[in-house]
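**Sequence with structure:**
===
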Amino acid sequence: MLVIIFFSCIFAANKSTFSHQTTPKSFARQKTIMNQEQCLGIDIGGTSTKIGLVTRQGELRAFDTFPSRARESFDWFIADLTRHVQKLLEGQTIRGIGIGAPDASPLDGTMRHAANFNWGACVPLVEAVEKALGYPTALTNDANAAALGEWYFGVAKGMTDFVVITLGTGVGSGFVADGHLLQGKRGMAGEFGHVVVVPGGRQCSCGQRGCLEMYASARGIRLTALECVAEAGNVGPLAGYTLETMSVRKIEAAARRGDEAARRTFKISGRILGRKLADLVAIFDTEAIILSGGVSRAGDLLLKPVAENMEAFTFPAFRGKTRLLTSQMKNANAAVLGAAALAFNVFDQK
């Protein structure tokens, strides 16, 4: 049975409500009438921003990526984004723009206290993009966008209960329960990267210490690798690297060549992440947890310890019942496709 999940947003006075409907018949009718329409999906990450021209069927017709330069000002970013979008859309028409961004609030179109950006406490992202590009714009959290992408076009298609965990510059999450995307009272549900896993641990850019993000993100894994290399006597293929020159890909390559410090890095990171995923299973009784983002491409080196610890620390009644999956999205990540899906569904209601 094909189930089409439908979302609607009504924007007024810079406020919006995000409601859920299941309307397969109306969706099919719209596909017939507006089959060739396109939306722009934007995924704003702490390291890079990705933009994609996406059809209603999830076909990626054009794609670009560029550094977010998160230490620059918000105005600088909007100007740079505008240049890239205008080039991508040259000669094209779109229905609207969907954006997935960290710490985004769909209720008022802002980004608030974005941990990896030098943009201050609150920036009017939707207002700025609409002013710069002239298209109606919808906003959601970047991990929620990834969840939408998996739901419409990826491994979660047909599911009603799942969690997407994004592992990249930071750690994010999107939750779908009983066929609803969870937004929360303030529209900011899903800050899984900022649950504390090591009290008094590493300083996080959010202001807390010991956040999951500081152990399971790309930065967190690099920090763990430096500690493991130091404990091993600063010898081996990873010796001599700094936090800036170390990368998850280098750690992965060393681990696959048998370097013990590199392999231990993934075991530690996988143990911490897996135990917290066990908590999610107990809370949400979810069908699947989907790992997305660059860090998840480390494959079995990370997934094996994650799966082992998730299973070992899951409440016994739920053991063996939640699948651990990785995103199979190609060409663009789930967040770009999900942001475009958001735009279609918001503006189809206008």
